[in-house]
Amino acid sequence: MNIIEIDDSKIIQEIIAGNHNALSVLYEKYKYMLYSQIYHLVHNEDDSLDILQDCFVKFISSINKKGELIKNIPGFLRRIAINQSLDYLRSQKRREVLQNLLIQFPNFSHSKSLMIKWFRKNYIMN
Protein backbone atom coordinates (compact mmCIF):
# COMPACT_ATOMS: atom_id res chain seq x y z
CA MET A 1 0.00 0.00 0.00
CA ASN A 2 1.24 3.48 -0.89
CA ILE A 3 1.88 5.85 2.05
CA ILE A 4 -0.37 8.49 0.51
CA GLU A 5 -3.30 6.07 0.53
CA ILE A 6 -3.12 5.40 4.28
CA ASP A 7 -5.92 7.13 6.17
CA ASP A 8 -4.74 9.91 8.51
CA SER A 9 -7.17 8.98 11.27
CA LYS A 10 -5.71 5.47 11.40
CA ILE A 11 -2.20 6.89 11.59
CA ILE A 12 -3.24 9.18 14.47
CA GLN A 13 -4.85 6.28 16.33
CA GLU A 14 -1.63 4.28 15.96
CA ILE A 15 0.48 7.22 17.19
CA ILE A 16 -1.78 7.65 20.24
CA ALA A 17 -1.47 3.91 20.88
CA GLY A 18 2.32 4.33 20.96
CA ASN A 19 3.26 2.93 17.56
CA HIS A 20 6.46 4.77 16.59
CA ASN A 21 6.30 3.42 13.04
CA ALA A 22 3.08 5.35 12.54
CA LEU A 23 4.92 8.60 13.21
CA SER A 24 7.43 7.65 10.52
CA VAL A 25 4.57 7.01 8.11
CA LEU A 26 3.07 10.42 8.89
CA TYR A 27 6.46 12.08 8.45
CA GLU A 28 7.05 10.40 5.09
CA LYS A 29 3.55 11.30 3.94
CA TYR A 30 3.83 15.04 4.60
CA LYS A 31 7.52 15.94 4.73
CA TYR A 32 7.80 17.18 1.13
CA MET A 33 4.68 19.31 1.31
CA LEU A 34 5.76 20.91 4.58
CA TYR A 35 9.39 21.32 3.60
CA SER A 36 8.44 23.18 0.42
CA GLN A 37 6.23 25.60 2.36
CA ILE A 38 8.87 26.17 5.02
CA TYR A 39 11.64 26.68 2.47
CA HIS A 40 9.45 29.11 0.55
CA LEU A 41 9.33 31.31 3.68
CA VAL A 42 12.81 30.76 5.13
CA HIS A 43 15.02 30.37 2.00
CA ASN A 44 17.59 28.27 3.84
CA GLU A 45 17.87 24.49 3.50
CA ASP A 46 19.36 23.70 6.92
CA ASP A 47 17.00 25.99 8.80
CA SER A 48 14.06 24.58 6.84
CA LEU A 49 14.98 21.04 7.88
CA ASP A 50 15.27 22.13 11.53
CA ILE A 51 11.88 23.81 11.39
CA LEU A 52 10.40 20.71 9.74
CA GLN A 53 11.59 18.59 12.67
CA ASP A 54 10.16 21.13 15.12
CA CYS A 55 6.82 20.92 13.34
CA PHE A 56 6.51 17.20 13.97
CA VAL A 57 7.58 17.58 17.60
CA LYS A 58 4.90 20.24 18.05
CA PHE A 59 2.38 18.04 16.23
CA ILE A 60 3.06 15.11 18.56
CA SER A 61 2.55 17.29 21.62
CA SER A 62 -0.71 18.55 20.06
CA ILE A 63 -1.91 15.00 19.49
CA ASN A 64 -1.35 14.26 23.17
CA LYS A 65 -3.47 17.30 24.09
CA LYS A 66 -6.18 17.15 21.40
CA GLY A 67 -6.21 13.49 20.42
CA GLU A 68 -8.96 12.72 17.95
CA LEU A 69 -10.13 16.34 17.71
CA ILE A 70 -7.73 17.01 14.83
CA LYS A 71 -9.80 16.47 11.70
CA ASN A 72 -7.69 18.07 8.96
CA ILE A 73 -4.17 16.70 9.50
CA PRO A 74 -2.56 18.33 6.43
CA GLY A 75 -4.11 21.70 7.31
CA PHE A 76 -3.06 21.40 10.94
CA LEU A 77 0.51 20.48 9.95
CA ARG A 78 0.60 23.33 7.43
CA ARG A 79 -0.49 25.81 10.10
CA ILE A 80 2.21 24.57 12.48
CA ALA A 81 4.82 24.86 9.70
CA ILE A 82 3.81 28.41 8.85
CA ASN A 83 3.78 29.50 12.49
CA GLN A 84 7.17 27.88 13.19
CA SER A 85 8.62 29.56 10.08
CA LEU A 86 7.27 32.97 11.08
CA ASP A 87 8.64 32.54 14.61
CA TYR A 88 12.02 31.71 13.13
CA LEU A 89 11.94 34.78 10.86
CA ARG A 90 11.00 37.04 13.78
CA SER A 91 13.86 35.72 15.86
CA GLN A 92 16.27 36.21 12.95
CA LYS A 93 15.11 39.80 12.49
CA ARG A 94 15.65 40.58 16.18
CA ARG A 95 19.09 38.99 16.10
CA GLU A 96 20.00 41.00 12.99
CA VAL A 97 18.81 44.25 14.55
CA LEU A 98 20.79 43.63 17.71
CA GLN A 99 23.94 42.82 15.75
CA ASN A 100 23.56 45.98 13.68
CA LEU A 101 22.92 47.98 16.82
CA LEU A 102 26.13 46.73 18.40
CA ILE A 103 28.06 47.58 15.24
CA GLN A 104 26.59 51.07 15.01
CA PHE A 105 26.80 51.85 18.71
CA PRO A 106 29.68 49.89 20.26
CA ASN A 107 29.27 51.77 23.55
CA PHE A 108 25.82 50.22 23.98
CA SER A 109 27.50 46.96 24.86
CA HIS A 110 28.65 48.54 28.13
CA SER A 111 25.10 49.30 29.13
CA LYS A 112 23.00 46.24 28.48
CA SER A 113 19.87 47.64 30.14
CA LEU A 114 20.05 50.80 28.01
CA MET A 115 20.37 48.69 24.85
CA ILE A 116 17.40 46.51 25.84
CA LYS A 117 15.24 49.56 26.57
CA TRP A 118 16.16 51.12 23.23
CA PHE A 119 15.48 47.87 21.38
CA ARG A 120 12.08 47.38 23.02
CA LYS A 121 11.05 50.96 22.34
CA ASN A 122 12.03 50.89 18.68
CA TYR A 123 11.32 47.31 17.57
CA ILE A 124 9.05 45.42 19.92
CA MET A 125 6.45 48.04 20.78
CA ASN A 126 5.91 49.08 17.14
Question: What does this molecule look like?
Answer:
This protein has about 130 residues and is mainly α. It has a single domain, classed as Rna Polymerase Sigma Factor, Chain: A (Orthogonal Bundle), CATH 1.10.1740.10. About 80% of the residues lie in helices and about 0% in strands. Helix 2 packs across helix 3.
Give structural attributes.
126 residues, Rna Polymerase Sigma Factor, Chain: A, mainly alpha
Blueprint (SSEs and pairs):
Blueprint: H1 8-16, H2 20-42, H3 45-66, H4 73-104, H5 112-124
DSSP summary, beta strand count: 0
Strand percentage: under 5%
- For the report, how would you describe the main beta sheet? none
- What is the number of domains? 1
**Gap between N and C termini, in Å?**
52 Å
Principal-axis shape equals elongated
How many whole angstroms does the radius of gyration measure?
Answer: 20 Å
Q: At the third CATH level, what is the topology name? A: Rna Polymerase Sigma Factor, Chain: A
Mean pLDDT: 84
Count of DSSP H/I helices: 5
CATH class: Mainly Alpha
Based on helices, strands and strand pairing, what is the structural class? mainly alpha
The CATH superfamily bears the name: RNA polymerase sigma factor, region 2, helix turn helix motif
In short:
With 126 residues, the chain is an all-alpha fold. The protein has helices spanning 8-16, 20-42, 45-66, 73-104, 112-124.
